[in-house]
Amino acid sequence: MTDTIACAATDLKAWEIGFWKRGSFGGGADEGVLFCSGDPGVGKTHLRSVASFF
Amino acid sequence: MLCDEAGAGGLAVAWLYCDYNVQQEQTVINLMGAIVKQLVGRGGIPEDIREAFQEAGKVGGRRPLLAALMQMLRIAIVSFPQVFICVDALDECLPKDLPKLLESLRDIIRECPGTRILLTGRPHVGEAIQRYFTKPVTISISPNKVDIRNYVVMRLDSDDMPEAMNDSLRAEIVRVILDKMSNM
User: Fold this and answer.
1) Which chain B residues are Cβ-neighbours of A29 within 8 angstroms?
2) Which residue of A16, B35, B42, B161 has the lowest C-beta tally within 10 Å?
3) Are B119 and A36 a contacting pair at CB < 8 A?
4) What is the pLDDT of residue A21?
5) Contacts of B129 (CB under 8 A, 6+ apart)
6) Global model pTM greater than 0.80
7) What residues of B are in contact with residue A2 (Cβ under 8 Å)?
8) Complex-level ipTM
Protein backbone atom coordinates (compact mmCIF):
# COMPACT_ATOMS: atom_id res chain seq x y z
CA MET A 1 0.00 0.00 0.00
CA THR A 2 1.11 3.57 -0.54
CA ASP A 3 1.41 5.90 2.41
CA THR A 4 -1.71 7.76 1.34
CA ILE A 5 -3.76 4.60 1.24
CA ALA A 6 -2.39 3.59 4.61
CA CYS A 7 -3.51 6.96 5.97
CA ALA A 8 -7.10 6.34 4.94
CA ALA A 9 -7.10 2.69 5.85
CA THR A 10 -6.10 3.22 9.46
CA ASP A 11 -9.34 5.06 10.08
CA LEU A 12 -11.53 2.44 8.50
CA LYS A 13 -13.53 0.16 10.69
CA ALA A 14 -12.91 -3.29 9.35
CA TRP A 15 -16.10 -4.80 10.62
CA GLU A 16 -18.23 -2.16 8.92
CA ILE A 17 -16.54 -2.85 5.62
CA GLY A 18 -16.97 -6.58 6.15
CA PHE A 19 -20.66 -6.27 6.95
CA TRP A 20 -21.15 -4.06 3.93
CA LYS A 21 -19.58 -6.66 1.69
CA ARG A 22 -21.56 -9.51 3.21
CA GLY A 23 -24.76 -7.62 3.96
CA SER A 24 -25.08 -8.79 7.55
CA PHE A 25 -26.69 -5.84 9.32
CA GLY A 26 -30.22 -7.12 8.77
CA GLY A 27 -31.29 -3.74 7.48
CA GLY A 28 -32.46 -4.79 4.03
CA ALA A 29 -31.06 -3.83 0.67
CA ASP A 30 -30.00 -0.36 1.79
CA GLU A 31 -27.23 -1.86 3.89
CA GLY A 32 -25.54 -2.65 0.62
CA VAL A 33 -24.61 1.02 0.43
CA LEU A 34 -21.36 2.16 2.01
CA PHE A 35 -20.89 5.91 2.24
CA CYS A 36 -17.39 7.15 3.02
CA SER A 37 -17.50 10.81 3.89
CA GLY A 38 -14.69 13.19 4.53
CA ASP A 39 -13.18 16.51 3.68
CA PRO A 40 -11.04 17.06 0.59
CA GLY A 41 -7.68 15.31 0.68
CA VAL A 42 -8.34 12.80 3.46
CA GLY A 43 -8.12 9.80 1.13
CA LYS A 44 -11.70 8.99 0.13
CA THR A 45 -10.82 8.23 -3.45
CA HIS A 46 -8.25 5.65 -2.37
CA LEU A 47 -10.95 3.71 -0.57
CA ARG A 48 -12.02 2.32 -3.90
CA SER A 49 -8.85 0.30 -3.87
CA VAL A 50 -8.61 -0.64 -0.19
CA ALA A 51 -12.17 -1.71 0.60
CA SER A 52 -11.52 -5.32 -0.30
CA PHE A 53 -8.65 -5.65 2.17
CA PHE A 54 -11.19 -5.96 4.95
CA MET B 1 -8.36 -5.43 -4.43
CA LEU B 2 -11.90 -5.71 -5.68
CA CYS B 3 -10.60 -5.64 -9.24
CA ASP B 4 -8.28 -8.56 -8.47
CA GLU B 5 -11.17 -10.49 -6.96
CA ALA B 6 -13.20 -9.63 -10.04
CA GLY B 7 -10.67 -11.36 -12.23
CA ALA B 8 -10.50 -14.46 -10.05
CA GLY B 9 -13.98 -14.89 -8.67
CA GLY B 10 -16.28 -13.63 -11.37
CA LEU B 11 -17.55 -10.61 -9.49
CA ALA B 12 -17.70 -7.35 -11.38
CA VAL B 13 -16.64 -3.84 -10.43
CA ALA B 14 -17.85 -0.70 -12.15
CA TRP B 15 -16.82 2.74 -11.03
CA LEU B 16 -17.56 6.38 -11.75
CA TYR B 17 -15.77 9.54 -10.80
CA CYS B 18 -18.02 12.59 -10.66
CA ASP B 19 -15.78 15.30 -12.03
CA TYR B 20 -16.53 18.93 -11.27
CA ASN B 21 -14.88 19.95 -14.56
CA VAL B 22 -17.25 17.91 -16.72
CA GLN B 23 -20.44 18.22 -14.72
CA GLN B 24 -22.50 19.18 -17.75
CA GLU B 25 -21.56 16.01 -19.61
CA GLN B 26 -22.07 13.77 -16.59
CA THR B 27 -25.82 13.49 -16.85
CA VAL B 28 -27.59 10.62 -15.13
CA ILE B 29 -28.05 8.88 -18.47
CA ASN B 30 -24.34 9.18 -19.24
CA LEU B 31 -23.34 7.99 -15.79
CA MET B 32 -25.64 4.99 -15.80
CA GLY B 33 -24.62 4.27 -19.37
CA ALA B 34 -20.99 4.24 -18.27
CA ILE B 35 -21.80 1.60 -15.64
CA VAL B 36 -23.62 -0.52 -18.19
CA LYS B 37 -20.71 -0.21 -20.60
CA GLN B 38 -18.17 -1.33 -17.97
CA LEU B 39 -20.23 -4.35 -17.01
CA VAL B 40 -21.12 -5.58 -20.47
CA GLY B 41 -17.65 -4.74 -21.75
CA ARG B 42 -16.17 -7.52 -19.61
CA GLY B 43 -17.49 -10.30 -21.82
CA GLY B 44 -19.92 -10.92 -24.60
CA ILE B 45 -22.85 -8.52 -24.87
CA PRO B 46 -26.01 -10.22 -23.55
CA GLU B 47 -28.61 -10.72 -26.28
CA ASP B 48 -31.24 -8.73 -24.36
CA ILE B 49 -28.95 -5.70 -24.27
CA ARG B 50 -28.07 -6.08 -27.95
CA GLU B 51 -31.78 -6.12 -28.81
CA ALA B 52 -32.49 -3.07 -26.63
CA PHE B 53 -29.85 -1.07 -28.50
CA GLN B 54 -31.20 -2.23 -31.83
CA GLU B 55 -34.71 -1.21 -30.78
CA ALA B 56 -33.50 2.22 -29.69
CA GLY B 57 -31.75 2.63 -33.02
CA LYS B 58 -35.00 2.18 -34.89
CA VAL B 59 -36.33 5.45 -33.46
CA GLY B 60 -34.21 7.92 -35.37
CA GLY B 61 -30.97 6.46 -34.09
CA ARG B 62 -31.44 7.95 -30.65
CA ARG B 63 -29.57 6.64 -27.64
CA PRO B 64 -31.43 4.52 -25.08
CA LEU B 65 -33.51 6.38 -22.51
CA LEU B 66 -32.80 6.03 -18.79
CA ALA B 67 -35.49 3.39 -18.36
CA ALA B 68 -33.93 1.26 -21.08
CA LEU B 69 -30.46 1.71 -19.58
CA MET B 70 -31.73 0.66 -16.19
CA GLN B 71 -33.20 -2.48 -17.71
CA MET B 72 -29.87 -3.22 -19.40
CA LEU B 73 -28.11 -2.67 -16.10
CA ARG B 74 -30.37 -5.16 -14.34
CA ILE B 75 -29.68 -7.72 -17.06
CA ALA B 76 -25.95 -7.11 -16.79
CA ILE B 77 -25.92 -7.31 -12.98
CA VAL B 78 -27.73 -10.64 -12.75
CA SER B 79 -25.19 -12.16 -15.11
CA PHE B 80 -22.51 -11.86 -12.39
CA PRO B 81 -22.27 -13.54 -8.96
CA GLN B 82 -21.91 -10.09 -7.40
CA VAL B 83 -21.49 -6.54 -8.66
CA PHE B 84 -19.78 -3.63 -6.90
CA ILE B 85 -20.58 -0.13 -8.11
CA CYS B 86 -18.29 2.64 -6.87
CA VAL B 87 -19.29 6.28 -7.30
CA ASP B 88 -16.50 8.59 -6.25
CA ALA B 89 -16.84 12.31 -5.39
CA LEU B 90 -20.62 12.29 -5.34
CA ASP B 91 -20.56 15.89 -4.15
CA GLU B 92 -19.18 16.92 -7.54
CA CYS B 93 -22.32 15.76 -9.30
CA LEU B 94 -24.59 18.63 -10.37
CA PRO B 95 -27.27 19.21 -7.71
CA LYS B 96 -29.98 18.87 -10.33
CA ASP B 97 -28.65 15.44 -11.37
CA LEU B 98 -27.85 14.06 -7.91
CA PRO B 99 -31.41 13.07 -6.89
CA LYS B 100 -32.00 11.11 -10.09
CA LEU B 101 -28.61 9.42 -9.79
CA LEU B 102 -29.31 8.34 -6.22
CA GLU B 103 -32.80 7.23 -7.15
CA SER B 104 -31.40 5.10 -9.97
CA LEU B 105 -28.83 3.52 -7.65
CA ARG B 106 -31.55 2.87 -5.07
CA ASP B 107 -33.70 1.14 -7.68
CA ILE B 108 -30.78 -1.05 -8.67
CA ILE B 109 -29.90 -2.14 -5.15
CA ARG B 110 -33.51 -2.87 -4.26
CA GLU B 111 -34.12 -4.89 -7.39
CA CYS B 112 -30.71 -6.57 -7.28
CA PRO B 113 -30.05 -6.76 -3.52
CA GLY B 114 -26.74 -8.59 -3.87
CA THR B 115 -25.27 -5.47 -5.44
CA ARG B 116 -22.88 -3.43 -3.32
CA ILE B 117 -22.56 0.32 -3.79
CA LEU B 118 -19.62 2.35 -2.50
CA LEU B 119 -20.18 6.10 -2.42
CA THR B 120 -17.63 8.71 -1.45
CA GLY B 121 -18.13 12.42 -0.96
CA ARG B 122 -17.87 15.36 1.33
CA PRO B 123 -19.97 15.13 4.49
CA HIS B 124 -22.76 17.42 3.26
CA VAL B 125 -23.80 14.98 0.52
CA GLY B 126 -24.73 12.52 3.27
CA GLU B 127 -28.06 14.30 3.72
CA ALA B 128 -29.03 13.56 0.12
CA ILE B 129 -27.93 9.95 0.49
CA GLN B 130 -30.07 9.54 3.61
CA ARG B 131 -33.12 10.61 1.62
CA TYR B 132 -32.73 7.66 -0.72
CA PHE B 133 -31.14 5.00 1.47
CA THR B 134 -32.55 4.54 4.94
CA LYS B 135 -29.71 2.47 6.38
CA PRO B 136 -26.48 3.09 4.52
CA VAL B 137 -23.29 1.97 6.24
CA THR B 138 -21.49 5.24 6.90
CA ILE B 139 -17.83 5.77 7.66
CA SER B 140 -16.29 9.12 8.39
CA ILE B 141 -12.76 9.41 7.07
CA SER B 142 -10.40 11.79 8.80
CA PRO B 143 -6.66 12.29 8.57
CA ASN B 144 -4.54 10.37 11.03
CA LYS B 145 -1.86 12.55 12.61
CA VAL B 146 0.66 9.73 13.07
CA ASP B 147 0.32 8.70 9.42
CA ILE B 148 0.69 12.28 8.24
CA ARG B 149 3.78 12.79 10.39
CA ASN B 150 5.35 9.58 9.10
CA TYR B 151 4.57 10.56 5.53
CA VAL B 152 6.04 14.06 5.88
CA VAL B 153 9.18 12.69 7.55
CA MET B 154 9.55 10.13 4.76
CA ARG B 155 9.27 12.87 2.13
CA LEU B 156 11.78 15.06 3.96
CA ASP B 157 14.18 12.11 4.24
CA SER B 158 14.03 11.68 0.48
CA ASP B 159 14.45 15.36 -0.35
CA ASP B 160 16.90 15.85 -3.21
CA MET B 161 18.45 18.97 -1.59
CA PRO B 162 19.00 17.91 2.05
CA GLU B 163 21.73 20.51 2.50
CA ALA B 164 19.12 23.27 2.10
CA MET B 165 17.33 22.19 5.28
CA ASN B 166 18.66 22.15 8.82
CA ASP B 167 17.05 20.36 11.76
CA SER B 168 15.21 23.48 12.84
CA LEU B 169 13.59 24.02 9.45
CA ARG B 170 12.78 20.35 9.21
CA ALA B 171 11.00 20.41 12.58
CA GLU B 172 9.17 23.59 11.57
CA ILE B 173 7.89 21.99 8.35
CA VAL B 174 6.52 19.01 10.24
CA ARG B 175 4.93 21.20 12.92
CA VAL B 176 3.22 23.58 10.46
CA ILE B 177 1.80 20.79 8.33
CA LEU B 178 0.40 18.99 11.38
CA ASP B 179 -1.05 22.25 12.69
CA LYS B 180 -2.81 22.93 9.38
CA MET B 181 -4.09 19.36 9.29
CA SER B 182 -5.66 19.84 12.72
CA ASN B 183 -7.71 22.71 11.29
CA MET B 184 -9.17 20.63 8.46
Assistant:
1) 109-110, 113
2) B161
3) yes
4) 73
5) A33, A35, B90, B102, B119, B121, B136
6) no
7) none
8) 0.77
